[in-house]
Amino acid sequence: MRLLVGLPVSEKLGRRADPAEVPAPEHELGQTHARSTDLALLHRAILRSLGHDSVVFACPAVPPSPPPRADRPRYELNVRVASDLKEVAGDLTVRFTPNRPTKRLVFRLWPNGPLQRGEGSQLDVGDATANGRTLPASRPDPTTLVLQVPLRAGQSVEVHLPWRLRVPLDARDRVSRFAGGIRLGSFFPVLAWDPRRGWITDPPARILAESSTTPASDFDVRVDAPAGLEALASGTKVGADHWHAHGVRDVALAVARFRVVTRIVHAPRPVLLRVAVARTSNVQGSTVLRMATRALERLSRLYGAYPWQTYTVVVPPDLHSVGIEYPTLTFIGASPILRVIVDHETAHQWFYSLVGNDQARDPWLDEALATWGQVQLGGGLPGSLAAAPADQFQHVGAPMSYWNGHQIAYFREVYGGGVVALSSLGTRRVNCALRHYAAQDAYRIAQPGDLLDALNRFIPGAERRLRRFGIRR
Ligand SMILES: [Zn+2]
Q1: From CA 249, how far away is CA 216, in angstroms rounded?
Q2: How many A from CA of 5 to the centre of ligand 1?
Q3: Do 159 and 169 contact (CB within 8 A), yes or no?
Q4: CA of 156 to the centre of ligand 1 (A)
Q5: Is residue 258 classed exposed, middle or buried when 0-12, 13-18 and 19+ CB atoms within 10 A define those classes?
Q6: CA 366 to centroid of ligand 1, rounded, Å
Q7: Does residue 165 share a domain with residue 235?
Q8: Which residues pair with 307 in a beta bridge?
């Protein structure tokens, strides 16, 4: 899961092995001193690393970003939420145009991953049709639907697919029902196409972490919510429970009774920022609005304009000290480290949402960079990790297949070790490289080599210097 972030929380995870149990506020207070010591140590480590950066460095102007590909998938998604919130029925129509020949379409059904099924999620699909004809289908594993459709490069197909989702109560992962509402992410069948690599069929992670790889797409989403409940989705609201999201990799949805506060943020283009706090949560919407405003403004100065017209922050009552990012919509757990979570998940809007990655093969590409962005905002950070000997972090670039079964080590190395690795290159130059990377690889699915190319450009020997952290192209 695109969790968290602050080391104190990780350490608690280490003892309790359950993010849902993380910190009662009184415990957090007791850690304040330790954390500020950690902060001082990290700042010292960063200052030391700035020795590499002592010559005055001016970041060259960033060229304009490319728009999303013209041949991106176009989805129409209908979502009907049952009045008892236990089930969601839906159907989708997607127009897909491959940029290279293929014999099949591959949809991923992420609610059927082992961890998600263990929590009670289940995504079933009906017959897929194209031009009124049922398509031959196979299910090589519970998270994968393969449809036999031969296509030439540039040839489009429009596929209709009905689906049904079971929504478990109080789940820790991305599909969950709470008192009076639901929050859904990675919840419908989604095409796993990478224009550079073709179909991406990584196995699902077995710990709380994402495995999804999807191309930037357009979504037209209509939600039929139970009476009295409000639906909030990724993108722009264009009608009653009707949403458009353009150039996004996925769509998240929350349905509940919310207190909503909004404002226009300049990031630097105007963005409608919406904070929706479930009425069963006791967080102040104005507090979250202030945090998200600050994060959007500062991150856009560091990594380039926020490219979408809206940003929605949903605070459900059940996430506690974690957050989950989706394009233009993040779920934020109410917690003493609220700001850290807002900073981290907002940084994912650049690293995961705008510049995508194969989250199963290269989880560090979005998690290390989102944690890096969070650290730039001065929020919580993996403090004592930064002061730890760098040789403790030798697997930052490892895939989820390596981390399966090692949740704590995953956070420690990928989130914390990733920041330590980048800090060793010098903060200003890394931020410059990331700004260029975000522009050049906008809307694409980046690979480690793309980030290393950007770092090499501004930092002599960056790629070689990162090898000891297990980072390779
Ligand atoms: Zn994250």
Answers
A1: 4
A2: 7
A3: no
A4: 34
A5: buried
A6: 7
A7: yes
A8: none
Cβ burial of 87 (10 Å; 0-12, 13-18, 19+) is middle
Two structure tokens written together for 377: 């905002």
CATH code of the domain covering residue 191: 2.60.40.1730
Cα 380 from Cα 6, distance rounded (Å):
5
Residue with tokens 């952290």: 469
Residue 456 structure tokens: 């090499």
Asked whether residue 266 is domain-assigned, the answer is: no
The DSSP code sequence of 286-348 is HHHHHHHHHHHHHHHHHH----SSEEEEEE-SS--S-EEEETTEEEE--STTHHHHHHHHHHT
pLDDT tens, residue by residue, 330-355: 999 988 889 999 999 999 999 999 99
| C-alpha of residue 431 to centroid of ligand 1, in Å | 18
Ligand 1 centre to CA of 364 (Å) is 9
Q: How far apart are CA 74 and CA 310, in angstroms?
A: 19
Chain position carrying tokens 């031969």: 150
Residues 93 and 44 in one domain: no
- Residue 413's domain comprises 7-66+356-469
* Distance of CA 2 from the midpoint of ligand 1 (Å): 4
7 or 14, higher pLDDT: 7
89 Cβ partners below 8 Å, 6+ apart?
A: 79, 80, 82, 162, 163, 164, 165
| pLDDT tens figures, 233-259 | 999 999 999 999 999 999 999 999 999
Please name every residue paired with 100 in a beta bridge, in sequence order, or none if there are none.
Answer: none
